[in-house]
Amino acid sequence: MNYIPTREEIIADHDNVVYERTCLLTDNPLSYCPGCGHGTAHRLIMEVVEEMNLQADTIGVAPVGCSVLAYDFMNIDMQQAAHGRAPAVATGIKRLMPDKFVFTYQGDGDLAAIGTGETLHACNRGENITIFFVNNGIYGMTGGQMAPTTLPNMKTATSPYGRDVETMGYPLKITELIAMLPGTYFVSRQSVHTPANVRKAKKAIEKAIQYQKLNKGLCFVEIVSNCNSGWKMTPEQSNKWMEENMFPYYPLGDIKVPKEK
Amino acid sequence: MTEEIIIAGFGGQGVLSMGKILAYSGMMQNKEVSWFPSYGPEMRGGTANVTVIISDERISSPILNKFDTAIILNQQSMDKFEDSVKPGGVLIYDPNGIVRHPVRKDINVYTIDAADEAARLGLSKVFNMLVLGAFLKLKPLIEPEYMRKGLEKSLPMRHHNLIPENEKAIERGKQLVKLEHLMN
Amino acid sequence: MKDIRLMKGNEAIAEGVIRAGCDGYFGYPITPQSEVLEYLMATKTKERTGMITLQAESEIASIHMVYGGAACGKRVMTSSSSPGISLMQEGISFMAGTELPCLLLNVVRGGPGLGTIQPSQSDYFQAVKGGGHGDYKMIVLAPASVQEMYDFAKLGFELAFKHRIQVMVLSDGAIGQMMEKVELDEQIQRLTDAEIKQKYPWATTGKTPDRERNIITSLDLNPVKQEIININLQKKFKHIEQTEVRFERIMCDDAEYLFVAYGSSARICQKAVLLGRERGIKVGLLRPITLFPYPSKELAKLAKQVKGMLSVEMSAGQMVEDVRLSVNGAVPVEHYGRLGGIMPAPDEVLNVLENKFIRLSVNTPRLCLGIKKIL
User: Are C307 and C353 in contact (CB under 8 A)?
Assistant: First the structure.
C-alpha cells in the first residue's frame, strides 16, 4: 500500500515550497508591535539583498528609534548610528568601501527631525548609498510623541490636543524636498499594508539597490507605515486611517525616476 | 648662538613671509629655527607680527616677550615692541609713517628707508627684502647661498623668476641701513 | 637623504597622517586648524595614497563619518578646534561605547563659547576626563613641537588600533600655527581590504559564510550585560594606564622646584627653566606627553625630591588637579595660567615660581598670585 503523506508533510517537502522566509532574517523574534509595518519592510530589504546575492557585500546602518535593533533581525554586517546620523555614518562607510552596498534604515524622527542636516547633505552630495525611510508620523519607540511628519491636528503624547500647525509647524515632506536635489537619482514613496503594495514596494527597493551598484547617486525609498500602538488603534483601524489620512498628505508612487530608460 | 627676532608691521607688508624666508634660510644652513606668527583677523589688514628664532641649539620656547632684534614697520608695532628689545639688543625700523621714534638709550637703533626705496624702484613687493637686507647687514647669520636656498624653498615655483630681484633687494637693503644711535 | 621641511604644526600632522597610511579624513573648517583640511585637499591624497578627504557639512557629520569608516576597520580621523570638538562629543561617546579606533585632533582655542581664535589649553578636562556622556577615556597625546604634531599621527593610529580606542592629539593654536623643522619618514602603505578583514575580525566588512555577522553597537538594553561591557572598558583603561604613560623630564635630576606643563606651555617653561638656572634656581620641568594616561607615578617620585610644583597651563587650573592627585599632598602644588588666548612669557612663569615658592617663607599663606594678579 502506498504511503499517503499528510498535508503537513506535503507542505514540509522542500520541492513543494513556493515561498519561504529569507535566510537573511535571523531567528530572533521581532521586537515590533503586532501589526507594525517594520517587519515587512525588513523582510523585503533582506529578500532583495538575498536575491541579488549581496550578503557579503552589504553594510547596513541602523538608526535610533523603533528599528534601533534592526541588526538583531538582519543577518548582515551592521552598524548602529547615533540619532539622526545614519547618512553621515553611511557616507563614511561608502567613501572608504565604495564596492559595498551601503544602506540606512531610518524612521521619521531620525531622518526628518534630528538628522535633517545629515540627510539633506548626503542627498545633495549624491552619496552612492540607499536610504530606506519608514514614515509613520510619530515617535514610536519613546511612546508616541509628535514627529516632524505628524499630520495637522493629529493627537500625540506631546500634541495631546492635536498638532496645531500655527505653533508646532507643518508636517515635513522631506521626500519631496530631497527629490529636488541634483544628488538624488531615484526617489519613491511606497507602503507595505496590502499584498499589492508590498509587491510595488519590493520593486522600488530592487531599483534602489540596483542603481547603487551602478554608482548613480543617492536612492531613497520612503515607506509610509502605520503605528497602531502609537496611534492607539487596532492594526486594521490603523491601516484604514493611514489610507484615509496619511496617503492624501504623502501620496504613494515614484517621485523622481531616472530619465534614461 | 641664538638669535630671537620679532618682525612687526601691517598685514600686507610681507612681515610673515620675511620671517618665513629667514627661517627657511636658517634651516637650509642647518640651524634650528622656529616661526611663530600672530594669526587671525589681523592677517587681513591689521597688525601682523612673527617671532623668528635661529639657533645652534634646540629651541626652547618659540613664544617670547624679549628679543635680541626687533624689526618694526609701523607705529603700533613701535608702541608695542620697543620695550621688548633686550638691553643691548637691536631695533631696526623704517621711519616712514613713524611719528614717535624710539627713545630707549640702552639699545642700538638703526633705520632703513625701505618704503621710499621700494617706491623709487617701483617694486613695492621687494619692500620686505630691503628690510631683511638691513637685518642681515647687522646680523650676518645666514650665508648668501643659504638665503638663495631659503628663497627657493619658501617661494612657490611660479615666483622663482623673482628670486634675483629679491636677492638684489637684500643687497640694496644692506647698503641702505643707517645707524640712528648706539647704546650708551 | 633625510626629508626635512619647515612646516606649520597643522600641515605637519596632515602630512603625518598621509604617511601613516590613513584611509580617510572627514572634517569641517574652523580656525586655527583649517590648514589640515586645506593641506590634505591641496596635496591630492586620493592620487597620492588613495586616502579619501571629504569636507563634511558639520563637525557632527564629520565625527559620524569617522564612526562609519572606523567601524569598517579603516584608519580614519577628523580635526577641529574647541567649539567643533564640543559638537563632536556625541560621536566620540558612541565610538567609546563601540571601541572604535580613530585619531582626533583638537587645536585648542580660547573659550568658553566662541571665545577667541588664539591658543589656549582650556579643553583639558573635556579631553582627559571624558567630554561626552558615559564612563570612558581616550588616550590624549600632547605635542609640544611641530615634529611631535607629525610624529603623533603615526603613534596615534598605532595606539588607537592596539587598544581599539580613540586617540586625541590635544594641541593648541600656537603649535598648530607655528613653523619648525620636521623630519619626515617613509610612507606606510595603507592596508588592503583583505588585510583589514584578517587583522580586524570585528570590523563590518560584509558578512561572509566563514563568520557570524559583525555588529557595531553601543546599545545593550540589559543592564546586567551593559555593566559587564562597562567593567571591561574600565579594565582596558587601567591597562592603558599601566602601559602607555609617556613624559619628558627636562633638568629634573637635581631640581628643587618643578614646572609641570604640556604642549606650548611646556615650551615656555623649558625656556623658564634655562632662565631660572641662570638665576641660580634649581628648577626642572616635567612634561606629560600623554595626558591620559597621566604620568602620576613620575610626579609622585619627584614629589619626594622637590620643594614645590607649579602647574603652568593656559587655563584657569585644570591639569593642576591631576598634579595634586598625583602627589597627594606630599608637596605644595600651585597653578599659574593665562586665559582667553593669552600666552604667558618665560620670565613671567619663572617670576611666579619664585614668588610662590622661594620669596615667601614656608609658613606664609600662599596667595593665588597667578590669575588674581591679572584680574
Answer: no
